[in-house]
Design goal:
Elements lengths: L6 H16 L5 E4 L8 H9 L3 E4 L9 H19 L8 H14 L9 H6 L14 E5 L10 E8 L7 E5 L4 E5 L2 E3 L5 H17 L40 H4 L6 H6 L3 H17 L3 E4 L10 E9 L5 E10 L20 H14 L2 E7 L13 E2 L14 E4 L9 H14 L4 E2 L6 E6 L2 E8 L2 E6 L2 H14 L2 E6 L2 E2 L2 E2 L9
Parallel strand pairs: 1-2
Antiparallel strand pairs: 3-4, 3-7, 4-5, 5-6, 8-13, 9-10, 11-17, 11-18, 12-13, 14-15, 15-16, 16-17, 19-20
Helix pairs in contact: 3-4
């Protein structure tokens, strides 16, 4: 869609397709406040058809987080696809349609079926998928027997109306549909495309004449120079060999068995014991018999070596995580949305701190999600390595949230919000994870990013009192001056005003 003014027409087409193909009616439409969604014709159309509209507040894209995140994923896919070809940027629309098709065919941890399967009622077939932008020889209809029977083209999309592929033919600069094609699987799109473009440029730059030499003069044998042949063996460069190293960088155990056979097994055992002690002290669960007709949620251990700013291992963490993908909507959970501090908010706070020479302190909340309470009735299996002897058949009845539960992040955020506002901090209107407290000439900012807390202010006593008060409410770790957050190393030089 090139123009936003076409949004209304596209929505009507989409609604008809959805209702005709699925039999379901659109009842609610959630929108941001873009001008294309505020037109009188769209508003009247929604009222006439009994469709409720939900508007997100200005500057609050997280309230429409699913679509925002989906668009971000699609954009990343398009950028990646375009970078592997030399196709013009005008082909981004074809790349976007292909990315959307692939994303709809990909599995998701939030759904038992792919979007494609939900829509069509059958699993998708992947055998016809091809790398976007890859070269292919496409059969062509020729009149002259001496003409080439195929042309080197570029695959750019999958047509909706017919079986086959969309191909781009550079020589004629046109896109057409065909099924008769042989794809070149062993070359990257950008390699052959670059050679083709160079060949095209050189052929266009070379003037053509009507004179054709049928026979070249014969050169005497004695005048032929013997060329020196290189003994070096030519090999295709390994442009993407570094991708093979990515799997070696993540060497944390994936299972309980791997942790027990790991070189740091003693560290992992200590980390798991610490996690179980935290669960016990926070009264996260009670051990009970499983009620009849109830299916417990599974759990697993997640291991992580936490690195410092210089890449050294500082903490061995073992988290007991619920298998949230086994939860059922309306039974084990209701709402799951939880806000995150925006990166631009953190940058703005840092800029304010640098300009006014504020203190920047950092704290870490231990066992973060254990601070949230569970409203639903949830039962969970006992974890590996810590099953109660003689009570193996029993399960945990959860009283608090733990990592992995779909509502865990939301429960923690709601509880923290209640607590911090009880200490006279005021929530920011545009970022619900940024708080501010003012007392006379003293000012303090608090930024929450899951379990990381930043405290910024001009009054050391106020910041110290806030840290002490937070420590009475949660199990906290004081990290002193902020040095590392969200993968960013923080270096401060106050002599230079930063």
């Amino acid at each position: 869609m090139r123009y936003k003014s076409k949004a209304f027409g596209r929505f009507k087409e989409f609604r008809l397709e959805v209702e005709n193909q699925t039999g379901h009616k659109i009842k609610i439409l959630r929108l941001d406040r873009g001008g294309e969604y505020l037109s009188r014709e769209l508003l009247d159309y929604l009222k006439e058809n009994g469709i409720l509209s939900q508007w997100t507040p200005p500057g609050m894209p997280q309230l429409n987080g699913v679509s925002i995140r989906r668009n971000r994923i699609l954009l990343d896919m398009v950028q990646s696809m375009m970078s592997f070809t030399e196709l013009p940027l005008s082909f981004w629309g074809y790349a976007l349609e292909t990315a959307a098709k692939l994303l709809n065919m990909a599995p998701s941890k939030n759904m038992a079926q792919t979007p494609y399967q939900i829509w069509h009622g059958k699993p998708a077939s992947y055998k016809y998928l091809r790398v976007w932008g890859s070269p292919a020889y496409v059969k062509r209809l020729v009149e002259d027997k001496l003409d080439s029977r195929s042309s080197l083209c570029r695959f750019v999309d999958y047509p909706k109306e017919t079986a086959g592929y969309y191909f781009y033919y550079p020589s004629e600069q046109k896109v057409f549909v065909s099924r008769n094609a042989v794809f070149l699987k062993k070359s990257f799109p950008a390699d052959t495309q670059r050679e083709e473009l160079l060949h095209k440029e050189s052929s266009e730059a070379t003037p053509q004449t009507d004179t054709v030499t049928l026979f070249a003069p014969i050169v005497p044998t004695n005048d032929i120079l013997v060329l020196r042949r290189s003994t070096r063996v030519s090999q295709q460069p390994e442009r993407y060999g570094f991708l093979g190293l990515t799997g070696q960088l993540d060497n944390d155990p994936k299972t309980y068995e791997e942790a027990m056979s790991d070189i740091d097994s003693e560290k992992w055992i200590e980390a798991m014991k610490s996690e179980m002690d935290s669960m016990s002290s926070n009264k996260v669960w009670t051990l009970v018999d499983l009620p009849k007709g109830v299916k417990p949620v599974g759990c697993k251990w997640v291991y992580k070596r936490k690195l410092g700013a210089d890449g050294e291992v500082t903490i061995f963490k073992a988290k007991l995580v619920a298998k949230g993908y086994t939860q059922r909507p309306g039974v084990d959970f209701e709402e799951t949305y939880s806000p995150l501090a925006m990166a631009k908010s953190i940058r703005i706070i840092f800029a304010i701190a640098a300009w006014y020479d504020y203190e920047i302190w950092q704290m870490d909340v231990k066992t973060t999600f254990l601070n949230g309470f569970v409203e639903e009735e949830i039962y969970m299996d006992q974890p590996e390595g810590f099953t109660s002897v003689g009570e193996e058949q029993k399960v945990f009845h959860l009283q608090r949230s733990i990592y992995g539960l779909k509502q865990a992040s939301r429960s923690w955020n709601i509880h923290f919000d209640e607590v911090i506002r009880g200490y006279d901090f005021i929530k920011n209107d545009f970022d619900p994870c940024v708080y501010k407290k003012v007392s006379g000439s003293s000012v303090a900012f608090l930024v929450l990013y899951v379990d990381d807390i930043l405290l910024i202010g001009n009054d050391v006593k106020m910041l110290g009192d806030t840290k002490a008060w937070l420590s009475t409410q949660f199990s906290m770790k004081d990290l002193g001056e902020a040095s590392y957050i969200l993968g960013i190393k923080i270096i401060r030089d106050r002599s230079r005003g930063c």
